[in-house]
Amino acid sequence: MSDIKILEREVLFAVEGERRPRSLTLPVDITATDFLERVVALTGRTELVEVLIEDEEVTIQGDHILFERIVVDEFKLVHVATEGKIKVEVTFNGKTKDTGFRPSATMEKIIRWAMGAFELEGEPADFQLKLGNEVLAAGQHLGQIAECKKTVRLNLVMKIKPQG
User: Fold this and answer.
1) Which CATH number fits domain 86-158: 3.10.20.310, 3.10.20.90, 1.10.10.60, 3.40.250.10?
2) Per-residue pLDDT tens over the stretch 37-64
């Protein structure tokens, strides 16, 4: 048996308004507040005030240990974001519905909401979201495509399935 204690771990995280994730090696006992301070120092963006886990609605409070919220065998991206939700307007067949999501929301979560809002049958995999002409992957996060705006307009479309 080994008595080696892990003192640091790498965390992969997304910053609201940035497409590419970042990573930092941090002490295993770092609090959400200390993590946030490091990200603000790294990015120079003082408007970043919330720490979230992918698809969760509740922010990680300042005194909580960050790595206690990260499940090792289940990959979920950590998010650093500005305060509050992003208004998402989804258009489908000429109709528009809107609601607010945290920047940590995946496109799959938004598709599931839109299917309910438009009373659509099927599976989330039958649909995709588009931002302009760009098709968004189901695992992409809202904060990464929102470009630091608090309103995003998306189009819900049926996925084209090849015949053959």
Assistant:
1) 3.10.20.90
2) 999 999 999 999 999 999 988 899 989 9
